[in-house]
Amino acid sequence: MQLYDRGLRRRLPPMVDGDRRRVELAYSLLFTLPGTPVLFYGEEIGMGENLAAEGRQAVRTPMQWTPEAGAGYSTAEPGTFPNPLADGAFAPRKVNVYEQSRDPGSLLSRIRLFAERYREAPELAWGEYRVVEAGERAVLAHIGCATDGTILAVHNFADRPVTARLRLPEAGPGGRLTDLLDEGHAGLTVPDDGLLPIELPAYGYRWLRVGTPADDPERVASD
């Protein structure tokens, strides 16, 4: 889908048939791999494109602010817009900022959380990057390690649940890992054999802050 050796005429959501799991997986990778994460406008709500438009204009559709006919972009007749709106499953009535901003389970809310956690984790932006053997070929596990701490990101590219098993010298037996994206997830503790199992759903991912046994207040209190 590349044009002119430098640009695309597709957006991610339509390319994965609107599969929310795969959309989130891709954006999670964007925020956790080395480099600066950059989002093209509208990607935070899962906008599509209009392939009826020529060349790169296909992805330069009006921003979809509301579900109204003009998408909140303009009160003018949509037929007069510089580029046509997306239609079908990605039309403004189905994908828009107004509705997603009021839904804590929306893609917009998830992207906001990615951005917030990214800002709170300098290890991802500035830390030393290292791939960790996961014991499962469908899983990419990598660490961002800096003076202030260590973040582990784990991504499952398979369309089935998997269990990754990792050895983390940064934590060691008894080390505690805290989920940064889901407070409902219980923390993980590295078992005595040092091999940490992490269960992931199809296209699942987790961001985990790595701690040592000394970071566990309950362990410190008992000692």
TrEMBL record:
Top-rank taxon, per record: Bacteria
Q: Which residues, by range, are in coiled-coil regions?
A: none
Taking every annotated instance into account, which residue ranges of this chain make up the domain Glycosyl hydrolase family 13 catalytic? Answer: 21-114
Q: What is this protein called?
A: Alpha-glucosidase C-terminal domain-containing protein
* Sucrose hydrolase-like C-terminal domain boundaries: 150-209
InterPro entries on file: GH, GH13_cat_dom, Glyco_hydro_b, SupH-like_C
Sorted alphabetically, which SUPFAM superfamilies does this protein's record hold? (Trans)glycosidases, Glycosyl hydrolase domain
